[in-house]
């Protein structure tokens, strides 16, 4: 258990709320479009897989193995998707991952603000030395988003994960370290300010 890993993170446009039973129906609705999960090791538009994922996420939160969040639009209360802190190693590092958003939120800056909130919490509050991110090596959209933070590409772990169809996935790994965080934070703030305009 890492005290403070799971807490509400509030931004200008979104709130990351620790995953709770009250989010289940809204998350199920947000996950209805199968395009979201094209590169993920689960397909939450499948009811059985959604139920298994939600139960595992809640269990991981309860035992401190991860800190999953519901991504909620602040103004409307609409649940847009989910993200998580995973693989916590207290005082050393944490992974930001398992991130997905309903297509209506794609390209809107929601993911940028979520990353700003999570990286700020990891570095400024938890004192991490490193934050890790990974994705399917074939997922150019996700890899582009990580590079745009900018996170540093660290290589590909070949045959890193088995997918539901039985194939093995190569995973591309990225990281931000504490010394890079001020520049990453400034970049994310610039990107968000450009979306808001003057």
Structural class: alpha+beta
Q: Looking at CATH, which topology would you report?
A: Aminopeptidase
> Which architecture does the CATH hierarchy give at level 2?
3-Layer(aba) Sandwich
Rg over CA atoms: 16 Å
Strand content: 25-35%
Give the full name of the CATH homologous superfamily.
Gcn5-related N-acetyltransferase (GNAT)
Given the C-alpha coordinates, what overall shape results? globular
CATH class: Alpha Beta
Helicity, as a percent range: 25-40%
Helix and strand succession?
EEHHEEEHEHEEH
Strand order of the largest sheet: 1-2-3-4-5-6-8-7
Low-pLDDT windows of residues: none
The overall average pLDDT, rounded, is 95
Beta strands, count: 8
Describe the protein:
The structure is a single chain. This protein is an alpha+beta fold and 198 residues long. It has one domain: Aminopeptidase (3-Layer(aba) Sandwich), CATH 3.40.630.30. Helix content is 32%, strand content 32%. It has five helices and eight strands, in the order ββααβββαβαββα. The protein has an eight-stranded mixed β-sheet with strand order 1-2-3-4-5-6-8-7, sandwiched between helices. A hairpin with a 5-residue loop joins β3 and β4 (79-89). The longest helix has 17 residues, at 47-63. The chain is globular. The protein starts with 8 loop residues before the first strand and ends with a helix. 33% of the residues are buried.
